[in-house]
């Protein structure tokens, strides 16, 4: 009779389980869980009505709208261009392809403050890109458009790196089968390729969106930070902290955190769905 | 022949579409990635090499370099130890709550950098949960170096573990079990069997962890209190110079961080290539 896998592993001959688990749980508790728990401790001091007042003040709501809207717009731009970039990188061959492929991770690797001051300088009214835009009557820096540009920069690798392995592992025989059954190239892509890529694509877009919700360094320089107009939620948290309004800052932080964690939970579900879809093929 | 021609036509895009998509993709990447990359160095060298060098030799810049190296020098090794321990427990053993542990380790990825810094003020600040205790023992944590290290540890927490867990799960337990049965001690088994198998993934995790530790801005900005020469890491120094309209100096310091990012990308490419070559050697 085969020994169940689970049973065998609990009686493993491998050493170090107690030590490894102890070190992990202890450091996790001290470095992550204990500090995070202070959020709930501090915001519970406000009571429900105080909490609601802090998170629904007009200036706070204006910052949610900006942060949420710009993050969504950036995620959509990345959804479109990230798909095209991935398609070109995986399916076509051109000189310098590997260099371009490595460069996609540049926004991951670049410190956010550097991204922030660079994009601001580029898109300022006298900048390399801001000046031609200004001549067209478009103001980029210090407007919601600038916020969207910074969030697009930050989010691009999420879409490409989530989609790329799935497109690479897509079996070409499926496309050949569709073609030999008389489908045109456009039909094959619309009916065979896109449905197979959809879960991974949506996961990538959602990851980019979730990252954008909390983003600070790359946005704060280009945003302009005008209350009610171009003030992002993370900046508002810092402003409250600097005014020693710790309870108010915490309340807004809890709202931000709940939004990000709900996104991550949804992404988790998406990945399970995506994996099941992959296994079914 | 005719049928294969039809298949080729139906499984590939027309040349015009290919060219158009390639131009569109490269244009987008050029605008969003290459132009900023070039701009950092163009702005840094705007007033020539002498001004560039003097911005980097300035005492405040040097103290920022020191503090950045110190912070990463503490945070990265600690996360290395934690990451290996967590991956060992999670990948090689079954235990109740394993999936919950994986989720909790990933938590810092979902927390805004601003909140990652703020929780340490709520914990150790004057009105904080452990604030009175820290004051009674004369410990300065927030607005001081320990706070910077703690915030950096928080934001980089998942990096090493996250690289190692899937890798060590894929390796399985047979090789280590064989080493144990043949009489290897726990440490011998780890050094001779486990470590060689995971070295490239481990290196990659450390590289990513280091890049984030040196480049973190939001979290350290909140806990630093912006005390010049005392609590300024390189990214914070960039911010101060920029806000003082010393643009050229700000970009000179930023160019150092950009070089770090490029080295990180290069290391990542090399590690991936080595890792892939070793896998194909085994096969």
The low-confidence parts of chain A are 6-10
**Count of distinct structural domains of chain A:** 1
Order of helices and strands of chain A: HHHHHHHHHHHHHH
Number of strands of chain B: 0
Which architecture of chain A would the CATH scheme give at its second level?
A: Orthogonal Bundle
Structural account:
The complex is a heterodimer of chains A (281) and B (283). With 281 residues, chain A is an all-alpha fold. Chain A has helices at 5-10, 17-44, 47-55, 58-91, 97-103, 106-109, 112-123, 130-135, 144-168, 172-180, 185-214, 217-223, 233-242, 246-280. Chain A has one domain: Orthogonal Bundle (MetI-like fold). Chain A contains 14 helices and no strands. In chain A, helix 10 (172-180) packs antiparallel against helix 11 (185-214) and helix 13 packs antiparallel against helix 14. The longest helix of chain B has 36 residues, at 247-282. Chain B is globular. Classes of the chains: A mainly alpha (281), B mainly alpha (283). Chains A and B meet through helix 1, helix 2, helix 4, helix 5 and helix 6 of A and helix 1, helix 2, helix 4, helix 5 and helix 6 of B.
Fold topology:
The complex is a heterodimer of chains A (281) and B (283).
Chain A lengths: L4 H6 L6 H28 L2 H9 L2 H34 L5 H7 L2 H4 L2 H12 L6 H6 L8 H25 L3 H9 L4 H30 L2 H7 L9 H10 L3 H35 L1
Chain B lengths: L1 H10 L3 H30 L3 H10 L1 H34 L5 H9 L6 H12 L6 H6 L8 H12 L2 H13 L2 H8 L4 H30 L2 H7 L9 H10 L3 H36 L1
Helix pairs in contact in B: 2-14, 3-14, 4-8, 4-9, 4-11, 6-8, 6-12, 8-11, 8-12, 9-11, 10-11, 11-14, 13-14
């Amino acid at each position: 009779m085969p020994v169940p896998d689970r049973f065998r592993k609990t009686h493993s001959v491998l050493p170090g389980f107690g030590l490894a688990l102890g070190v992990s749980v202890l450091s996790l508790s001290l470095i992550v869980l204990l500090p995070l728990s202070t959020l709930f401790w501090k915001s519970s001091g406000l009571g429900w009505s105080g909490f609601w007042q802090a998170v629904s003040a007009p200036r706070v709501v204006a910052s949610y709208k900006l942060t949420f809207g710009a993050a969504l717009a950036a995620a959509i731009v990345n959804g479109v261009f990230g798909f095209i970039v991935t398609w070109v990188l995986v399916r076509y061959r051109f000189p310098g392809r590997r260099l371009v492929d490595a460069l996609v991770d540049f926004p991951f690797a670049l410190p956010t403050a550097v991204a922030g001051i660079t994009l601001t300088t580029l898109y300022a009214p006298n900048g390399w890109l801001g000046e031609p835009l200004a001549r067209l009557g478009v103001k980029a820096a210090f407007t919601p458009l600038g916020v969207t540009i910074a969030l697009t920069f930050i989010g691009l690798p999420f879409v490409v790196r989530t989609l790329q392995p799935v497109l690479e592992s897509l079996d070409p025989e499926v496309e050949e089968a569709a073609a030999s059954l008389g489908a045109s190239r456009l039909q094959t892509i619309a009916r065979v390729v896109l449905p197979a890529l959809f879960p991974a694509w949506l996961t990538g877009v959602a990851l980019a969106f979730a990252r954008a919700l909390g983003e600070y360094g790359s946005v704060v320089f280009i945003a302009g930070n005008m209350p009610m107009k171009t003030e992002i939620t993370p900046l508002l948290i810092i402003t409250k902290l600097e005014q020693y309004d710790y309870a108010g800052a915490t309340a807004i932080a809890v709202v931000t955190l709940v939004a990000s964690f709900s996104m991550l939970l949804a992404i988790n579900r998406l990945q399970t769905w995506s994996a099941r879809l992959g296994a079914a093929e | 022949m005719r049928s294969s021609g039809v298949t080729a036509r139906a499984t590939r895009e027309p040349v015009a579409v290919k060219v158009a998509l390639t131009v569109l993709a490269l244009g987008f990447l050029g605008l969003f990635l290459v132009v900023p990359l070039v701009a950092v160095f163009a702005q840094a060298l705007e007033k020539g090499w002498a001004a560039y060098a003097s911005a980097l030799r300035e005492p405040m810049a040097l103290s920022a370099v020191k503090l950045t190296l110190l912070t990463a020098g503490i945070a990265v090794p600690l996360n290395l130890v934690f990451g290996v321990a967590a991956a060992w427990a999670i990948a090689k053993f079954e235990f109740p709550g394993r999936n919950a542990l994986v989720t909790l380790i990933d938590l810092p990825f979902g927390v805004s950098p601003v909140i990652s810094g703020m929780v340490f003020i709520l914990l150790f600040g004057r009105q904080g949960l452990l604030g009175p205790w820290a004051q009674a023992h004369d410990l300065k944590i927030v607005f001081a170096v320990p706070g910077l290290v703690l915030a950096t540890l928080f934001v980089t927490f998942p990096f090493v573990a996250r690289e190692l867990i899937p890798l060590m799960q894929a390796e399985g337990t047979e090789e280590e079990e064989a080493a144990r049965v043949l009489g290897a001690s726990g440490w011998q088994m780890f050094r001779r069997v486990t470590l060689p198998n995971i070295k490239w993934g481990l290196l990659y995790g450390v590289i990513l962890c280091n890049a984030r530790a040196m480049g973190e801005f939001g979290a350290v900005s909140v806990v630093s209190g912006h005390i010049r020469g005392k609590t300024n890491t390189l990214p914070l120094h960039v911010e101060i110079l920029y806000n003082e309209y010393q643009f050229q100096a700000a970009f000179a310091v930023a160019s150092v961080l950009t070089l770090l990012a490029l080295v990180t990308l290069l290391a990542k490419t090399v590690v991936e290539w080595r890792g892939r070559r070793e896998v194909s050697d085994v096969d």
